[in-house]
């Protein structure tokens, strides 16, 4: 009797949980797709630019969540990939190469190479040592960007045109630019979600819990982590491409350690390891930042404690809070 009851309970509880994993991201992307319509019926036009920026950073936060939430690797140099993507875009546009189908392969190739070299070194360490060495590599790229005097150096590089796609300019209007970023974000989300659901993702998650046991079963833990690290860096480079086109300006500040910290905050705020939580966290982070910055010039003194208190008292971030609310309502 007890075993039958337990089976019935599991059967009745599991499907709603599985549906929630699909329903929440579907609702999220539907709402994001409808955002330009809200602007057309009276929402301030500046909100679309803000939301575009949030989606750009959502790609970077999602890429970080692959190694942070799934792989358990805390990288404090992840913004280096974002900066590499932005600088490759800026330099190529300055040199007269504005075609996105030319720029993007170069960005992905450079980020993959940088990720493979630095990842092979960083993954020899664990814990605090891994955090510090990723921070060191990130700062190396930061100071390298400052030394590029031909491309603005510490003052940054202003772009006088945006990337094109097959002769067209999809970034000319705010709406077309927004949907371009949204499509890229959806593609990145599906890619990462597919990786996490595959055997590769299961091994990566298991290595986070017990790497020794995974190694005993015959899997090369460092190889799996390195592949995840490289893929994560390539996706962050993609966000750098959009950021450069959005701001029409490239600066070493894009790859500072503070930016890496912000990406970690976004992932944790939304719900680390949930993937769509990184997207929600990036949007919530930038909207809250924008709102507070309009209230006072000392907004960081308010914003920091707010995030810390929220993370401390809402286990699982925003996604965890939504799950609790959903559980209370059956």
Automatic annotation (TrEMBL):
UniProt keyword annotations, A-Z: Cell membrane, Membrane, Transmembrane, Transmembrane helix
Location relative to the cell: Cell membrane
Positions of transmembrane segments: 22-41, 47-68, 75-94, 100-123, 130-151, 171-192, 226-244, 264-287, 299-322
UniProt GO molecular function: branched-chain amino acid transmembrane transporter activity
GO cellular component: plasma membrane
Membrane topology field: Multi-pass membrane protein
UniProt name for this protein: Amino acid/amide ABC transporter membrane protein 2, HAAT family
Species this protein is from: Bosea lupini
